[in-house]
Request: fold
Amino acid sequence: MAADAGQDARSVTGRALRLLAAFDVAHPALTLSELARRADLPLATAHRLAGELQAWRALERGSDGRFRIGNRLWEMGLLAPVSSRLRQVALPFMQDLYEATRENVHLAVRDGCDALYVEKLCGHRSVPIVSRVGGRLPLHATGVGKALLAGADPQVREDYLDRPLSRPTGFTVVERGRLERELRDAARRGYALTREEMTLGSVSVAVPVGPTGEEAEGSAAGSAPPEAALGIVVRSHRADPARLVPPLKAAAQAIARRLVETARDPAPGLDHELPPMPVQRRGARDA
Amino acid sequence: MAADAGQDARSVTGRALRLLAAFDVAHPALTLSELARRADLPLATAHRLAGELQAWRALERGSDGRFRIGNRLWEMGLLAPVSSRLRQVALPFMQDLYEATRENVHLAVRDGCDALYVEKLCGHRSVPIVSRVGGRLPLHATGVGKALLAGADPQVREDYLDRPLSRPTGFTVVERGRLERELRDAARRGYALTREEMTLGSVSVAVPVGPTGEEAEGSAAGSAPPEAALGIVVRSHRADPARLVPPLKAAAQAIARRLVETARDPAPGLDHELPPMPVQRRGARDA
DNA sequence: CGAGGCCTTCCACTGAACGGAAGCCCAGAC
DNA sequence: GTCTGGGCTTCCGTTCAGTGGAAGGCCTCG
Reply:
């Protein structure tokens, strides 16, 4: 297991990465000293490494002397499949959904024990909401999270439920039995619900994006887990969330279909070389 | 000057970064050998470094044995100001604009000698277009690029024009005199135009986002350069682009205003600690 | 004017990174 | 069947790049 992975890292690379990891939402700009402190590195070392990162434009240094994440790093990050494939494909459908409903529309994937928010659309007047593109929220307390968990590999689900669950609001369901029942219901119905379990006053509906979506329905509970989940969040006093299910399902299915299509024809309009497809040997995968 | 910056890099950090830089739009997934070749590193070295990056989840390794950019890197990238501030603020207005016009809406910043595309909205039916979020296009051949160049610091503009200019189509304006005139016109009118200069069959309109926008108009040509540019691309046979200028200007102004506001109140709803503001000493900025 | 931050530079020491080489696995050719 | 070739992984002795304490500069505040 990668128990301590990413924490210690005595190697140079590890130190450089620790430097990057010092940034987060609450600290998007850091002075050199802050950086060194947060990365737990001697000032001189932080200075040298940060300098190198800056030269490569992984970091930028503002006129206030603070370091920030650089455009180059941002650019590189956008090449991650989650953005270049998933977001790319899903965005137009999410826009349609937004226009039709005028509510917060979310797209998330499961990443470890979190729902990782890949995209989020919301107008000016929408509910102020905790989610953030690139942000993480617990799986059991969010609509998209439940949809992902409901469709996940049983083993993953077990492991998740074995851990202590956070309780953002008084309505968060943390009792194992009840949560399991809710997840089974969600899997059966094809959509998940949360009622003020993450934020007081907000309810959300979400559906899985992927093979589970529709076609593989009656037959197998053992179909591949969804790639993502699509969800909508509304103020709880606004009408019944069930109304939102049909358009959500339609959008999710359309996205899933396009994902399969784009997997076939490699990448539209780009010089692709289709390199030989090596097969995987064992070992080393989870060393 | 950072003449050779980012190319050589004999340091460990440099090698690791070279590994990252091996990925691009056309190569979003690489085998270890490809990675080593493209980064120009011995296989053993690439293996070790890629392994470390993978442990940190800056890279991920798919079931096909290929490396891809990891979610962790994507997450980090989203902390760059261009995304966490600019995109964040602009997106709702861009959505409005898209709904009102149903055309491709672009947001870009100047990054060195390129227009760097920060966000792009386009429905299913829009013009297939070369731009891509996180992608770069030449400043002189795109609408947003001209808007940025027109508002840029005169010295930057000079430097840009001194370099040889690419010519994506037969309509691209590369003659210095004519280009300068167009830029002056754009600055005066407050919007820039391109007609099939990047892509045959497409024309675009763009306006600067920033102080130049409106208020600082009559008085000074020497106002601060725009932070970004907002543009729309349409098929050239569709009606006159001038029609799009008013909504564009309105949106740009709204965005600029919100940018100033958010600069004042640090970050909505987050535990901010407002660390002491150190002042910058000389030296080292452009070493 | 001194104390306390923050940043930058220097340089002698050393242990971490290096990478050639050996070996494994798989696929396809013959 | 064997052989060739490509891709991946591991090993380990050498060496050179990274380290970080210390000194010094600049600034602000009391």
